[in-house]
Write a structure and sequence with these properties.
Layout (H helix, E strand, L loop, with lengths): L1 E7 L4 H5 L12 H13 L7 E5 L2 H13 L7 E4 L15 H8 L1 H9 L11 H21 L3 E6 L1 H12 L3 H6 L7 E6 L5 E6 L1
């Protein structure tokens, strides 16, 4: 029986400031570091064979803090661009409230939540899903088939996309899905990679 645990990074400086982050490389806040340590404590019963994160510092730092809490800091970390947050294009760095005032709530909501609508010069969630699922199939699936226990720390939209694939979510379901900073979703999978159990921790 293999395990896959997905964790969203802790609160970042951009989350706290209320700006669109995307590929901006911003650190965790003190609250974000506390959320990461808290995630590690909630995973105290887990022992991982491999750990993965995006190449953005908020993802890697969260993973490092989790592994430290688990006394698994020596575990090799595999960082990949494919696990980066959705690219928000021209919205990156803009204040969300000011963007709503300029473009209207309906338009900004479509840019943020829609599966097929892309922000100006950015990715749709569908595009994000394509790159994340390709990485899952190429890198994670072989390890899971070998019965390994994997920890993946990534970003809200990246994890929404991956959960859509894993759980068979509809477009409406994934558009409504919210994943809190520091949030954890744990799966157990059969040798055929059928999910046998899943839980939020």
């Amino acid at each position: 029986m293999s395990q896959l645990v997905l964790v969203r990074h802790g609160q970042s400086e951009a989350n706290r400031a209320g700006v669109f982050t995307g590929w901006l490389d911003v650190p965790l806040t003190p609250r974000g570091e506390a959320e990461a340590r808290g995630a590690g404590r909630r995973l105290h019963d887990f022992h991982f064979d491999a750990a993965y994160c995006s190449t953005l510092v908020r993802s890697r730092r969260t993973l490092e803090l989790i592994l430290a809490e688990l006394n698994q800091a020596s575990l090799a970390i595999h960082a990949a661009d494919a696990l980066r947050e959705r690219m928000y294009g021209a919205l990156q760095g803009l204040n969300k409230a000011e963007t709503i005032a300029r473009y209207g709530l309906e338009q900004v909501t479509r840019w943020r939540r829609s599966y097929e609508d892309a922000p100006p010069e950015g990715e749709t969630l569908h595009h994000t899903l394509d790159r994340v699922v390709a990485y899952y199939n190429e890198v994670l699936v072989p390890a899971l088939r070998a019965g390994q226990r994997l920890l993946v720390v990534s970003h809200g939209n990246t994890l929404r996309a991956l959960r859509m694939q894993l759980e068979g979510l509809t477009v409406a379901q994934v558009e409504a899905l919210e994943i809190p900073t520091g949030g954890i979703r744990a799966y157990e999978l059969s040798p055929a990679l059928v999910i046998t159990s899943m839980a939020d921790l």
